[in-house]
Design a protein that fits this description.
This protein is an alpha/beta fold. The chain contains eleven helices and 19 strands. Helix 4 crosses helix 5. The longest helix is centred in the middle third of the chain and has 13 residues. The relative contact order is 0.15. Bound molecules: zinc ion (2 copies).
């Protein structure tokens, strides 16, 4: 499924990519549509420049291996990191692979590179980004490991201690993955904030102990009420605009910590005095940094659950239609997984 021009797909035959040295060819069995694909297909982000085969949340079966590949064989069930990191730069050598100086994201074409992704029957990926699927984990569920890994990385940036009150701002894909992950950490109250009632219902299914609809009530006042005054110990921001970052910082107790994951707006208004005089800690969190094995294990054990987040599973041939439905923000439609 090739993005031929902005907002226009073609479902057509393209040459099968070759597995180069150190690479494997994966027969894709499932690939999730990411919000960044939907935002990117109209040209607004500059990171999906046509022609490009998008798709970076995938799982499949190895169908051939290139020269120099060790430990992987035809028939292995795998998923892979959405980011191809170089493994050589100073950040990679320190294990900070999400901060790699030469990172390329699958299914992205921007000013610096073009890397075809997994909305196709086959995708070639380097062996060092592969992960083996646990027995019994379905491809459709494994395709969601990437957003869960993003959530787990954010939690590891500022993990709750036992019985901490935690706020998750935004109950979209990442927010819901955060709620699931946080509910495994021993935190106390887990409060989800969103403006869409359906999403808040899903947040409850995912483990939120209470929900706040910010379109009908003052979210900060609600969090203060839930904590009987002081505010939350931790908050995770999974939207990324001025209003939600402001709410997150104001719903924290003095000395609390905000982890910022959402980044829709490149610049925001910032409540400087609320942050400085109340000694807040603010962490940025980007992509993931080795959380895939933990996520795959948690998915296989049912500690993380992909099913509540999947809105539809559909053939890749219908991909353009599903992109359109997501682009038009069809209410209640969360993750769509396409199968070649
Ligand atoms: Zn993604
Ligand atoms: Zn690197």
């Amino acid at each position: 499924m090739v993005l031929k021009e902005y907002k226009k797909f073609a479902y057509e035959d393209v040459p099968v990519p070759a597995a180069g040295p150190g690479e494997v060819l994966v027969a894709v069995k499932a690939c999730g549509i990411c919000g960044s694909d939907v935002h990117g297909m109209d040209g607004s982000t500059g990171r999906r420049r046509p022609p490009i085969i998008m798709g970076h949340e995938a799982a499949g079966i190895i169908s051939s291996v290139g020269s120099g590949v060790a430990g992987w064989a035809v028939g292995d069930r795998v998923t892979f990191d959405s980011t191809i990191y170089c493994g050589q730069c100073d950040y990679c050598r320190r294990g900070l692979i999400n901060l790699c100086d030469h990172r390329r994201v699958l299914g992205v074409s921007c000013e610096d590179y073009r890397q075809n992704g997994a909305f196709a029957e086959y995708v070639a990926v380097p062996q060092h980004i592969l992960y083996r699927l646990p027995i019994g984990l379905a491809f459709e569920h494994a395709a969601l490991v990437e957003p869960f890994a993003i959530a787990l990385h954010a939690i590891r940036r500022a993990p709750p201690t036992l019985n901490d009150t935690v706020v998750v701002m935004g109950a979209g894909m990442i927010g819901l993955a955060l709620i699931q992950g946080l509910s495994q950490t021993g935190c106390g109250q887990l409060i989800a904030v969103d403006v869409v009632e359906e999403r808040l219902q899903t947040a409850t299914t995912c483990g939120a102990t209470s929900v706040v609809n910010a379109s009908t009530e003052d979210a900060v006042a609600a969090v203060l009420r839930h904590t009987q005054g002081p505010g939350a110990d931790l908050a995770f921001e999974a939207v990324g605009v001025s209003a939600t970052v402001d709410m997150v910082l104001r719903c924290l107790r003095k000395g609390g910590t905000a982890t910022l994951v959402g980044n829709v707006a490149p610049r925001i208004e910032f409540p400087l005095q609320a942050a400085v005089t109340r000694e807040l800690t603010i962490c940025g969190s980007c992509a993931s940094q080795g959380e895939y094995p933990a996520c795959l294990d948690m998915l296989a054990r049912g500690a993380l659950r992909a099913a509540p987040l999947i809105g539809a599973v559909a053939p890749l041939a219908e991909g353009a239609e599903w992109f359109d439905r997501l682009y038009r923000k069809e209410p209640g439609l969360l993750k769509v997984v396409l199968k070649p």
